[in-house]
Specification:
single chain; 533 residues; alpha/beta; TIM Barrel; H-NS DNA Binding Protein; eight-stranded parallel barrel; three-stranded antiparallel beta sheet; 17 helices; binds acetyl coenzyme *A; binds pyruvic acid; AIPM/Hcit_synth_CS; EC 2.3.3.21; (R)-citramalate synthase activity; isoleucine biosynthesis
Length: 533
């Protein structure tokens, strides 16, 4: 059986705190959602603002393969003729073949928010739906607060959706607008409405009890055939139902047909695209698509996963476009170290693996953390295995910050290193100490290693690791770097934040030099004429 997926990231998603899509963002996302295979894309609320109204004009220029774009609006104002209602005029002006109308279900909302009678609300619903139908639109009807209305006054709640059906709505979507309903209640009400109405039923849940996904699935099990939600669960208050989890669960756990055959493998990609577009951080523990969703840290887990991933994975990560990761930490056992050092073929040397494991545990005890610093771990392994030869020798560094009342602080770093038999002594200014050190170190090294120009530092995180010691506490600095092909993390720990940054920075540069020499052939560019790796 096929379940229709209705995405409201561009409308309800943008009602989430901190979410604001530009017109260009909205058009880009429309194209991506279409490519991903979404059936209906709710593009916005044309009455609300000029950007949304403009979107519906601009979107007509896009050639979409599959998705249908939907405009959203509310039922006519009380005691207003449909032809004179500005909301309906804006909705129809959007020019979409499908419109979604939201109307009131809960009697309390009708009397206290709309300030009208129960009968007038029924007329508002039926008139509005019928009018849009007469204008040639397919109409979806969002029954706002359906489940609260059902609890308070089920007869009236049912009359409101019957009015929408009378008006000609093709699908009635039951909304858990306040997100406070439990799954059994959702299932019971959906089944009851399904028995009472001739049209298709949909579900639209909010996540205030962290149940929006479970509630949406319960509704489908009770007969709903359309699911509304947003990518990554963006939306008002605690958000909407997360379509990422809904799509994966419908397809993989229940075997429903959803979207297109290739959509599932693109789930991780679309999730991350929306985070990027919304300028939000990824949620690493997000089910199915988070970077930790298939990350194994506990030594016992890694041991078993090496034998068969199904021992600690409910699905194969590639089914949703994600990947398995093995994390190194103080919780690692020999199997983790073995897996992470596979490329060095150290499996025969149990003593060395134990030495590396002990070193990781000691360093983590001293404040290091290798989970996000796999490049520093790689250098540690090289050193322990005798595979490390320095690309340069660090002789000295100095950082100076000058600040007077006349101008903003100026940071200057000086670095002295030996490369082969040459000494390089360089100076650089920067936005801050790390930026200045990075600049000076590169100035010193780039003439010998030009490919360092390809890399850049993309993230810098600092954390106090033993806060009770006050200013003598150690700090951990994690730096993320990237070049055209890879992203890597390095770590440094010290009582001095600049020294911790320097350690992480040097690791980052050394890792890049080793990485390039390993891909291009051992020894390339190495001042000693070749490394053993
Ligand atoms: C559950 C949902 O998420 S529904 C979507 C909610 N989304 C938004 O509110 C975002 C976009 N909203 C907006 O841009 C504005 O609120 C607008 C343009 C829709 C309306 O703006 P305004 O006319 O200034 O009204 P305002 O926002 O103050 O109040 C809402 C009005 O809608 C009326 N209203 C609310 N729901 C309905 C409905 N289903 N049918 C008819 N009228 C309704 C209210 O009674 C109120 O009208 P009143 O001031 O005449 O009493
Ligand atoms: C329609 C809608 O967004 C809601 O009821 O939550």
């Amino acid at each position: 059986m096929r379940i229709v997926i209705y995405d409201t990231t561009l409308r309800d998603g943008s009602q989430g705190e901190g979410v604001n899509f530009s017109l260009q963002d909205k058009l880009l996302l429309t194209r991506r959602l279409d490519e991903f295979g979404i059936d209906y894309i709710e593009g916005g609320y044309p009455l609300s603002n000029p950007k949304d109204a403009e979107y519906f004009q601009a979107v007509q220029e896009l050639t979409l393969r599959h998705a249908r774009v939907v405009a959203f609006g509310m039922t006519r104002k009380k005691h207003t003729a449909v032809e004179d209602d500005t909301g309906l005029r804006a909705l129809l002006g959007a020019g979409t073949a499908v419109v979604t109308l939201v109307g009131k279900t809960w009697d309390y909302h009708v009397t206290h928010v709309l300030g009208t009678t129960l009968d007038e609300n029924l007329r508002m619903i039926e008139d509005s739906v019928r009018y849009c139908r007469r204008q040639g639109r397919e109409v979806f009807y969002d029954a706002e607060h359906f489940f609260d209305g059902w609890k308070a006054n089920p007869d009236y709640a049912l009359k409101t959706v019957q009015a929408a059906a009378e008006g000609g709505a093709s699908t009635i979507i039951l909304c858990d607008t306040n997100g406070g309903t439990m799954p059994e209640m959702i299932a019971e009400a959906v089944a009851a409405v399904r028995r009472a109405l001739p049209c298709a039923i949909g579900i639209h849940c909010h996540n205030d009890c962290d149940l929006a996904v479970a509630n949406s699935l319960a509704a489908v099990r009770a007969g709903a055939t359309q699911v509304q939600g947003t990518i990554n669960g963006l939306g008002e208050r605690c958000g909407n139902a997360d379509l990422i989890s809904i799509i994966a669960n419908l397809a993989l756990k229940y075997g429903y047909e959803v979207l297109q055959p290739s959509s599932l493998q693109r789930l991780t990609e679309i999730s991350r695209y929306v985070y990027e577009l919304a300028n939000m951080n990824f949620r690493s523990n997000q089910p199915f698509v988070g970077s930790s969703a298939f990350a194994h840290k506990g030594g016992m887990h890694t041991h078993a996963v090496n034998r068969d991933p199904a021992t600690y994975e409910h699905i194969r990560p590639e089914m949703v476009g994600n990947e398995r990761r093995i994390l190194v930490s103080e919780l690692s056992g020999h199997s983790t170290i073995l897996t992470k050092t596979m490329k060095y073929r150290l499996h025969h040397d149990k003593a060395l693996l134990t030495q590396i494991l002990n070193q990781v545990q000691d360093l983590e005890n001293a404040g290091y953390e290798f989970e996000a610093a796999e490049a520093s771990f790689d250098l540690l392994v090289k050193k322990a295995a005798g595979l490390y030869r320095p690309w340069f020798e660090r002789l000295a560094y100095r950082v100076n910050i000058e600040h007077d009342s006349e101008r903003a602080p100026v940071t200057e770093a000086t670095v002295k290193v030996r490369i082969g038999d040459q000494i390089a002594h360089t100076v650089s200014e920067g936005d801050g100490p790390v930026n200045a050190l990075d600049g000076a170190l590169r100035k010193a090294l780039t003439p010998a290693y030009p490919r360092l120009q390809e890399m850049q530092l993309v993230d810098y995180k600092v954390r106090v690791v033993n806060a009770r010691e006050g200013t003598a506490a150690r700090v951990r600095v994690v730096i993320e770097s990237r070049d055209a092909t890879d992203v890597w993390g390095t770590v440094g720990v010290s009582e001095n934040i600049i020294e911790a940054s320097w350690l992480a920075l040097v690791d980052s540069i050394e890792y890049k030099l080793f990485k390039d020499s390993e891909t291009e052939g051992a020894g390339r560019d190495h001042p000693a004429g070749g490394s053993d790796v």
